[in-house]
Amino acid sequence: MKLGDRSKRMASISLHHQQTRILVQAAAAACEDKKGLDTRILELDPVDAGLSDFFLVTSATNDRQAVAIADEIEHRLKKEFGVFPNSVEGRRNGEWVLLDYVDFVVHVFLAERRAFYDIERLRKSARPLTPAEFDAELKSALAAKTLAARKKASAKPKPAAPKAKPAPAKAPAKPKAKPAKKSVAKKTAVSKTAPKKPAKKSAPVKPAPAKKAAAKKPAAKKAAAKKPARKKS
Length: 233
Fold this sequence. Notes:
This protein starts with a helix and ends in a 7-residue tail after the last helix. It is an alpha+beta fold. It has a domain at about 10-150: Beta Polymerase, domain 2 (2-Layer Sandwich), CATH 3.30.460. Helices cover about 55% and strands about 15% of the residues. Strands 3-4-5-2-1-6 form a 6-stranded mixed β-sheet. Helix 1 packs across helix 3 (about 65-80) and helix 1 (about 5-35) packs antiparallel against helix 6 (about 130-155).
């Protein structure tokens, strides 16, 4: 047997044992409601017990009360849990009514019959408990189980969030004219706000004196050419 299978089997046995304890507790409460006397729960040794895990023993003052206690146990377990006894014995006489639920057995005795058979003495290996002690143990076991379940749930890693599917690629949008206008407007705004610098005046270029003299020479030549040449005497 593998380790995982063994642990599962042990968990299943523990759960079944806990469910049996709940049924025994309900049967003990029925005994208390019907005024059963000296009610005891015997937790049997697994080696010595055979199939059953618990004996529930109570006493009645007369046979009618014994039958009423047995009827109340059977009715309550049937109504609240849907559980029926495997067999019922001694209901007609009422001296010793036995209800066999396989995992636990209920014994309803008349007081003198209980003292005669003395089941508690015969089951020396069993651990006797009062209904109050049994109830306290059951509540403690349920609280421990709840705490262990919460710790186990908190230790589990949380499932990762599903990854988002990538969106299909869209065609590139055409450039809009509005952003361009905004940039132009910004440029004009900058140019308006910027202070205008005065343009530098260029100094007048004076003509070189050499060029003026050169320009006057051809005029002198023209005047010399116009004067008539003097005749020699």
